[in-house]
Design a protein that fits this description.
This protein is of the alpha/beta class. The strands form 2 sheets. The protein has a 7-stranded mixed β-sheet with strand order 3-2-1-4-7-5-8, with helices on both faces. A two-stranded parallel sheet has the order 6-9.
Length: 246
C-alpha cells in the first residue's frame, strides 16, 4: 500500500489478548471506516500462547485494513510498539493498548494539534480535563504517583503522564525517534518521549477519558520493579549522552 495514501496507522501491541482483541479491533475498524481518511491497523502479536494470532488472521480475511506482525517469542511491549511503528505507513501513527482503555473516539481530540505545529500528541490522565471513569486500585495509584514523580525528577520535568497508552506521532517524528529506542519493556514510553524532547520535537498533552483495566498486564511487583530500574538506566543513558541528537 502506498504510504502517501494512508492517513492514519494504529499500532496495537498484543500479548494473550484473545478475550478482548477481536471485539476491540472491530470497534476501531468500524469507527475509522466512518472517517473520510484512509487507515491501517497493525496488530503486533508479542509471542502470544493463546489464539490471538489466529483471531487476527481470520479478521484479515474480511478487512484488508488490518495487518498482523508476529514476534516469535515474548519480547515486551516496547519492542512490539517499536516494530509496529517502524512498519507503519501512515502520515500519523498512533499506538494504543489492546484494551483501548482510551477509546479510539478520543483520537479526534489529538489530531487537530498536528495542524497547530505539534509533532507528538499524547493522551494524559493527569492534567485538567481528564476523566477517569474507573480508577486503579489504591496501591497502583500510589505506585504510579511515585513513578511519575521520579520521571519528572530524573528525565522529563514537563510531562505529567508518560504511561498513558495512547500516543500519536507525525511520520517524521516517529521515523527519527523509534530507531533510537533501546528499551523493550513498559518503561519505553519514558525513553521515547525523552528522545523526542532531545530531537526538538513539540509534544502536546491532551486530557482524555480513561477506564482502568482490572486485569492489567503490568505486574504490580515484577514489572513495576523493572520499570523503576529502567527509569534509572534511562537517566544513566542521558548522563552518558546516549540520546544526544545532532
Amino acid at each position: 500500500m502506498d504510504c502517501k495514501r494512508i492517513y492514519l496507522s494504529v499500532v496495537i501491541p498484543a500479548y494473550n489478548e484473545s478475550k478482548i482483541l477481536s471485539k476491540n479491533i472491530e470497534k476501531v475498524a468500524s469507527c475509522l471506516s466512518s472517517k473520510d481518511y484512509t487507515f491501517e491497523l497493525i496488530v503486533v502479536d508479542d509471542g502470544s500462547v493463546d489464539n490471538t494470532k489466529d483471531l487476527i488472521t481470520s479478521m484479515i480475511q474480511v478487512n484488508t485494513n488490518i495487518k498482523l506482525m508476529v514476534n516469535i517469542k515474548n519480547m515486551g511491549k516496547g519492542f512490539s510498539v517499536k516494530s509496529g511503528v517502524l512498519a507503519a505507513q501512515g502520515k500519523y501513527i498512533l499506538f494504543s493498548d489492546a484494551d483501548f482503555s482510551t477509546s479510539i473516539e478520543e483520537l479526534e481530540k489529538l489530531l487537530p494539534y498536528f495542524e497547530q505545529g505539534f509533532d507528538i500528541v499524547v493522551g494524559s490522565r493527569a492534567i485538567r480535563g481528564a476523566n477517569i471513569l474507573l480508577k486503579q486500585s489504591w496501591l497502583r495509584q500510589s505506585m504510579g504517583k511515585v513513578f511519575n514523580l521520579l520521571v519528572r525528577l530524573l528525565c522529563l520535568a514537563d510531562i505529567k503522564d508518560t504511561q498513558c497508552g495512547f500516543k500519536c506521532f507525525s511520520r517524521d517524528a516517529a521515523g527519527k525517534i523509534f530507531p533510537l529506542q533501546r528499551f523493550s519493556g513498559f518503561c519505553f514510553d519514558v525513553e521515547v518521549l525523552n528522545i523526542a524532547k532531545r530531537c526538538g520535537y513539540k509534544i502536546k498533552e491532551v486530557p482524555i477519558v480513561w477506564v482502568n483495566r482490572v486485569d492489567s498486564r503490568v505486574g504490580i511487583i515484577k514489572d513495576s520493579l523493572e520499570m523503576f530500574l529502567d527509569l534509572f538506566k534511562i537517566r544513566f543513558n542521558i548522563l552518558r549522552g546516549f540520546y544526544n541528537v545532532t
